[in-house]
Amino acid sequence: MPASSPSPSPSGHLHRWSMLPVVLVAMFMAQFDLYVVNVALPVLQHELDASQASLELIVGGYAFTYAAGLITGGRLGDHYGHRNVFLIGMLLFGVASLLCGVAQTSAQLVAFRLIQGATAAILVPQVLALITRAFPPVERSRALSWFGVTMGVGAVAGQVLGGVLLNVDILGLGWRVIFVVNVPIAVVTVLLGLRILPHHVATGPASFDVLGAMGITASLTSILVPLVMGRSEHWAPWTWICLALSIPLLLVTVVRERRLEHHGGRPIIPLSLFTERAFNLGLGTSIALFASFFSVVFTLTLVMQNGLGISPLMAGLTFAPLGMAFAVASVLAKKQIVQHGPVVIAVGTAIVILGLTALIIVAYGVDVRLSAPMLIGPMILIGFGNGVAVPALIGVVLTTISPQHAGSAAGVLTTAQQFSSAIGIAAIGTVFFAVLGPGKRAGVHAYATALAGASMCSVVLALVGAVMTILLVRIPKRASIDG
Predict the structure, then answer these.
(1) Is 62 exposed, middle or buried (0-12, 13-18, 19+ CB in 10 A)?
(2) What is d(CA 384, CA 328) in angstroms, rounded to the nearest whole number?
(3) What is the CATH classification number for the domain harbouring 318?
(4) Distance CA 240, CA 189 (A)
């Protein structure tokens, strides 16, 4: 029988809010490790004699297993209990991080990063599910907004703190510190989790949908591998074959899942999730905004390091105002999310569009005189807008979902976010390099023009998100947000 939403009580209130930072540590670590290796790539190339292909797999391998495993990870929580899977996932993530930290060759690091991404996929859906199940409707949007804050701050912190950790060189560990730092955090989080995390009765059936898990993983793999590797492989025939195979694989999986659900089974993805209009529109908006945001971060990183020639540490520090703007906006908008969720998303999306427009104007206007400080203003607007929109968006998407589907819904949402980030980077990255043109000696002018072209594509994505947000606002309040 589905667990009901908890009712507010003074003691329960304190317990719920004390557990929140414990579970959010997992989200921060997963996002941090997704981006922290970017600043360490030159060091890894030198010390491990890593090839360009190995470097891309060190970055992309984590993203691949992370995104491909999120839906299965969410269902594991529904089946075996979110608390249990969270604690096991955190332990495994700590072990995988330690393995990354002791890797002796680039091949070992690639393998351990694949494992680390898979453990993050087990861990992250439980964060959203535990929040959804522990908090009553009146508090849930506010709690979920902190998930959005943590996601954004963790991503930017990976860029900023990664450079700091490498420069400080704690205990002479060099690049290894960016992985080893996770180990004590994981141990402390597990110890706190054993004491604080609530117990919920698992809602899964006697058997786990293994075929469904295999089907969705194969489908996602056939999409993700070409997206992660396509540009470096010059979009070789095998990348297009994989993308083509993903369509029948996905169709077969969906048909099987629909049939299983129709006969009373528990599929890996409950298709009944997609009967909620607020969930669908929120998911679509999330896809558009994440594709827009992370493609901008990707292109700005290229412009700073390759076009302007600044160091990875300085590039990371240049992103700090964006991260601070995201965090400040998230806190300021938090009180408005509960009562005006979809409207808050619309306001945030409008600010994002304004920031992207400013970025285009700067890139086109200053031309060969482009410098990192000139990018900070538009970046602050982009960070602030996403800080307003993203936390509210997560609350709107998940507050209509029943507790027994919390893990699955969290898996679908986080998978969509990771996929849209990969698709945005692949598609807009292609535009960026097409405008940049061939050759490794492109000047500031070429990079400024490429940035403007890529940012125009990001504006289009943000506009798509804005249209869906308008539709979301028109849904009656009770159906779209808790309150």
Answers:
(1) buried
(2) 7
(3) 1.20.1250.20
(4) 42
H helix runs in 303-371, sequence order:
312-318, 320-366
DSSP-derived secondary structure letter, 7: P
| DSSP string over 55-68 | HHHHHHHHHHHHHH
Question: Which residues are CB-neighbours of 328 under 8 A, at least 6 positions away?
Answer: 384, 387
Structural domain contains residue 2: no
Q: Which of 463, 415, 395 is nearest to 137 (CA)?
A: 395
Which string of DSSP letters, residue by residue, matches 441-456? ---HHHHHHHHHHHHH
Q: 321 to each of 29, 245, 311, 361, 413, how far by Cα in Å? A: 20, 42, 17, 19, 27
d(C-alpha 374, C-alpha 389), whole Å: 24
**Confidence label for 3 from pLDDT (cuts 50, 70 and 90):** very low
Q: Is the residue at 3 inside a domain? A: no
Which residues, 6+ apart, have CB-to-CB distance to 444 below 8 Å? 307, 308, 367, 368, 369, 370
Domain co-membership, 110 together with 25 = yes
Give start and end residues of each alpha helix (H) in 102-198: 106-134, 137-168, 177-180, 182-196
Evaluate whether residue 445 is within a structural domain: yes
For residue 399 the two structure tokens come to 């507050």
Q: What is the pLDDT of residues 151-170, one digit of tens each?
A: 777 877 887 777 777 777 77
Whether residues 168 and 256 share a domain: the answer is no
Q: Is residue 89 part of a domain?
A: yes
Q: What is the pLDDT of residues 21-40, one digit of tens each?
A: 999 999 999 988 888 887 77
Q: Which two tokens stand for residue 35?
A: 């981006």
Q: Which of 157, 256, 275, 255 is nearest to 211 (CA)?
A: 256
